[in-house]
């Protein structure tokens, strides 16, 4: 009921009627006292005695007193209503100025708690905040869209230029022998594969961000899944001089998840650890139970992520300094896709890095 503006205004108007009636009675009494004092003490005000006799005694049924009281009542009621509705006028002027662009969108109206329009003023202030927030979101979305187009164009153009260039050399027969021809073809094929991976990552990220893909949730033994993934990565790790180890006190930890999507998350994190943690020679995967949740930490011991880069590593197309990407030609979408997948499962992902180790931690709810 406290937010019902109509009720408050009607109730306040009835109060104003009551107060105006009381004030007008007081006003009549004061006029009588003042007139009596002036006419008794000052000769120039004797006409007030005759005027009072006319209004009080000569007019029948005390119509003179009623006339004075009604007149004072109207004046008092008008003043009280004017004070009450002046707040509405200020709100209206403020809204008009915001609409005309004379004030900022998030301009706040001063709220008088006792005013009948205090609730309206607060609601207008909330609306202004929401509009400002919506405008800022729109600007951020527009900026993100422009950045997306710029980054996609840049990342697609680089491998595409190589493919077109080497295929152009082949089409113009600008190669010495079959060995050089095969070399050109191999480079073009490798670049086209990278182009294909980039496009796949872009589609995957877009679908995850816009919730256009449904998860096929099923019970999954997380310990078994991570063990299988490390087995699959045994040869790639060995090729780059690294080893891996799984640490878990439990043999079975069940989560309800989309197996393919969740595997994609840990594949991205393991690949990331391989690319940036070669100097540490190993990757440790720690699984630990928490209250109703499970934590999976993928740790590498290579070059740390700088404090400047760390808050942005899950942003799309974000890459740390070039020295950290000298072994990778990634799309810059892997960690962003991983974050979207984890959040879609009701979990969270974060990262921590220092001179000793870099940890990517995934937290998921237990089944």
Question: Can you tell me about this structure?
Answer:
- The protein has 3 domains: about 5-105, no CATH class; about 150-210, Signal transduction histidine kinase, dimerisation/phosphotransfer (DHp) domain (Helix Hairpins, Orthogonal Bundle), CATH 1.10.287; about 220-365, Heat Shock Protein 90, CATH 3.30.565.
- The model is unreliable at about 320-330 (pLDDT under 50).
- Strands 2-4-5-7-6 form a 5-stranded mixed beta sheet.
- It has helices at about 5-40, 45-60, 65-100, 120-170, 180-210, 220-230, 235-240, 260-275, 335-345, and strands at about 220, 245-250, 255, 280-290, 295-300, 350-355, 360-365.
- The radius of gyration is 39 Å and the shape is elongated.
- The chain contains 9 helices and 7 strands.
- It is an alpha+beta fold.
Tags for this model:
367 residues, Heat Shock Protein 90, alpha+beta, single chain, 5-stranded mixed β-sheet, elongated, Helix Hairpins, two-stranded antiparallel ribbon, 3 domains, 7 strands
List the helices and strands and how they pair.
Blueprint: H1 5-41, H2 47-58, H3 63-99, H4 118-171, H5 178-209, E1 218-221, H6 222-232, H7 234-239, E2 243-248, E3 254-257, H8 259-276, E4 282-290, E5 293-300, H9 334-344, E6 348-353, E7 358-365
Parallel strand pairs: 2-4
Antiparallel strand pairs: 1-3, 4-5, 5-7, 6-7
Large-scale geometry: elongated
Full CATH superfamily name of the largest domain: Histidine kinase-like ATPase, C-terminal domain
Mean pLDDT: 80
The fraction of residues in strands falls at 5-15%
The largest β sheet comes out as: 5 strands, mixed
Q: Give the helix level as a range of percent.
A: 55-70%
Which CATH class of the largest domain is shown?
Answer: Alpha Beta
Strand order of the largest sheet: 2-4-5-7-6
How many domains make up the 3D coordinates?
Answer: 3
Q: SSE string, helix = H, strand = E? A: HHHHHEHHEEHEEHEE
Going by helix content, strand content and strand pairing, the class is alpha+beta
CATH architecture of the largest domain: 2-Layer Sandwich
Give me the number of helical elements: 9
CATH T-level fold name of the largest domain: Heat Shock Protein 90
The number of distinct β-strands equals: 7
- Calculate Rg over CA atoms: 39 Å
